[in-house]
Amino acid sequence: VAFVTAGIGATPALALSKEGFVSVKGALHVDRNAEYGQGLVDKLAANMEANGTDSSTIQPVFGQSRTASAEAIKAFGAKHNECHFICCGPLGFMKSAMKTLQEAGIEGDKIHCEMFGTGSVKK
């Protein structure tokens, strides 16, 4: 698999990669805050290395515009087109990532999204 994550959406990628539940071929992480984002990238790299995976395939995208982030996702998708993609992050990001990956030639059944949301559980 290849992860495409944004912000705290990296949490499922960290969990899945920690125990080697999935074979990670690459990861792209988008974050507005480079300091926070780099911490998540470092943890993901450590998990991948602990499971014998080359962590140099992680691509951080920090502080970029939506257009620049979409271009990075499209190039990442084209580079890892043999993979299934797990997208995690805010809803708007996941919609954009899914569309962008499809524009890169990734079939919809190879794109999986983990929904995170905000709001109250109380009515």
Offer a concise description of the structure.
With 123 residues, the chain is of the alpha/beta class.
Question: Mean of the pLDDT scores?
Answer: 90
Number of helices: 4
> Helix content range of the residues, please?
40-55%
**Structural class, from helix and strand content?**
alpha/beta
Task: Round the Cα radius of gyration to an integer and report it.
Answer: 14 Å
Task: Please report which band the strand proportion falls in: under 5%, 5-15%, 15-25%, 25-35%, 35-45% or over 45%.
Answer: 15-25%
The strand order across the widest sheet is 3-2-1-4-5
Q: Give the distance, in angstroms, between the N- and C-terminal Cα atoms.
A: 37 Å
Biggest pleated sheet? 5 strands, parallel
Secondary-structure element string: EHEHEHEHE
Report the principal-axis shape. globular
Number of strands: 5
Summarize this structure as a short list of keywords or feature phrases.
123 residues, alpha/beta, five-stranded parallel β-sheet
